[in-house]
Amino acid sequence: MAQEPATPKTRRLLARTVAALAGPGAAGRLGGLAASERAALELRAARRGVPARPAEEVVFLIPLVGAHHVGDWKAVTARLAATLESFVAQDDGRWRAVVCCQDRPPLPADPRIAHLPFDDPTPGNDKWRKLGALTGGLGDVRRPAYVMSFDADDLLRQGTVAEMLRRQAPGGYLAETGFVRDAATGDVALAGPPTPALPLRKPFWKLCGSCAALRHDPDLPESAAFLAAMTQHEHRMFPHLAALAGLGLVPLSRPSVLYELNHGENFGVRRGRVGFKTRFVQRFRVSDPDILAGLDRDFPQPSWAASLSPRGAP
After folding, report:
1. Domain architecture of the chain: domains with CATH
2. Is the confidence at residue 65, as pLDDT, over 70?
């Protein structure tokens, strides 16, 4: 299963406009809709008149690369451990995480963290098939939740779970701002929407897949079907598909995810797509000591993680 291609921007705008003005039925009659867009419109129709129940937890879906695809499995599992530690360190414990991989990695002894075995032998990149398996397991989610696909080498900021469940955004959340760290140099950049002073800066959700948490209603079969279809796309499609489903995403209140690149086993390296992000870090490098100190405070990692990079764990 290959990643689904993105819909051209003009067609995205047309579909959202028709759905907003004439309803999901009219939008569904447009030609050339992707399967994910049809799933979004079906969810939009199913949600009509259904009161939104408060989300009770945050569910993180983590596709992990198999050991046979990497050169240093120990480093991969060490970074996964740091990701999971950023969940465990949350001051609101209402979350759970599912890691999908062929090889069961070392996991904390925490009942909120589970391994989903994956045994599909199809050659090639299997990230999208793993996401399909993860969203296929949403039948185990019995309570309203925010569902967030999360890469196995990113970190969640302290307090983010609490913010999501306190604010109860009707559609979900989008990481418009976030940190990007170059493990090869230790430099950190702040990604965010462009401003007059920073016209070339990019929003975090355009750089990193750990960027969107969507409200999931387990009583609506269309909700799981939509999440399954949405996660077959690159993350740049997430805001469009969420809006088409009637799940408008609101920004998290502060940079809530740290994305680390050039650590040796990035998925993007295998696709030849890290170079521009390296240049992004240098262009928008953070030098403010207070911000850098906040990274150390709000993105905790295990003590051994400091040995994985020049600067130490941010």
Report:
1. 9-308 (3.90.550.10)
2. yes
